[in-house]
Design a protein that fits this description.
The chain is an alpha/beta fold and about 260 residues long. The chain is about 45% helix and about 15% strand. Bound molecules: farnesyl diphosphate.
């Protein structure tokens, strides 16, 4: 992470921001370039946004780098994306460590080439001691995969007699998700203008505040992140309660878990 601008703010920042990094292809096409050029530029945005999030004191940043459905893209684009992701992470790992950023990966590893997985795991291990920003990369990830996996694990536990079907509740299911232990996102940002959530953190975003920006991912930056946080701070999160109840809860700084 090379420093270009320093981000410090005098207002509260959320604990967890999740991002759908969309618009790389359109960014490239509008410039008469191959789609891959958009992905290459998108890596620079990952660096800028990670740096800004770290400086702002955000604890968790989850980036949707490669979805389960992205495996269906043309073979060449899949290979380019996998190569870009793993080489960028390896290149950035020394700076991640310098900036106290801890990397983790969530997704269906069974579909990721073994060599790529070994290299990613090495970067995860190298940053395991870091205590600042948690950078979570969703790679070969989809929510439906994650929820199916969680259901399978619960079924195994039930068959083994370790839990009863009646004991299964939201908390027990949550413990089987790839994101267990990570607070639900406060903010979900999608770049590129499309109004959908594309199989990303469907369970976790039940009460997340959504922001869609027209900006293509390669053009997104820390200033836009700060603007979104400012807008977020003006929203009242009610978690299904009345405005008055939410206000009262806010004052006692506790809230229901779902
Ligand atoms: C969506 O744009 C973007 C992706 C499928 C890949 C995002 C990946 C990166 C930015 C690289 C990540 C690198 C690291 C180190 C995490 P799109 O291709 O769907 O764009 P379009 O909607 O304009 O076609």
């Amino acid at each position: 992470m090379t420093t270009s601008k320093t981000y410090t703010v005098n207002f509260p920042v959320p604990a967890h921001i999740a991002m759908i990094m969309d618009g790389n292809g359109r960014w490239a096409r509008e410039r008469g370039l191959e789609r891959a050029a958009g992905h290459v530029e998108g890596v620079n945005t990952v660096r800028r946004v990670t740096e800004a999030a770290s400086q702002l004191g955000i604890k968790y940043l989850t980036l949707y780098a490669f979805s389960t459905e992205n495996w269906n893209r043309p073979r060449e684009e899949v290979n380019i994306l996998m190569h870009l992701i793993v080489t960028a992470i390896e290149r950035e790992t020394p700076d991640l460590i310098k900036n106290n950023v801890r990397l983790s990966v969530i997704g269906d590893y069974s579909r990721v080439p073994a060599d790529t997985m070994t290299r990613l795991n090495q970067c995860v291990a190298d940053t395991a001691h870091c205590t600042g920003l948690n950078l979570i990369l969703a790679i070969s990830y989809s929510s439906r995969w994650e929820i199916v996996e969680a259901s399978r694990r619960l079924a195994v536990l039930a068959v083994e007699g370790k839990i009863t079907p009646e004991s299964i509740d939201a908390d027990i299911l949550e413990k089987q998700l790839a994101t267990t232990g990570i607070p639900d996102p406060d903010i979900l940002i999608r770049t590129g203008g499309d109004m959908r959530v594309s199989n990303f953190l469907l369970w976790q975003i039940a009460y997340t505040e959504l922001f869609v920006t027209q900006t293509y991912w390669p053009d997104f930056d820390g200033d836009q992140l700060v603007d979104i946080i400012k807008q977020f701070n003006t929203r009242q999160r009610r978690f299904g309660l009345t405005g008055e109840q939410a206000e009262a809860l806010n004052n006692t700084s506790s809230r229901p878990s779902s």
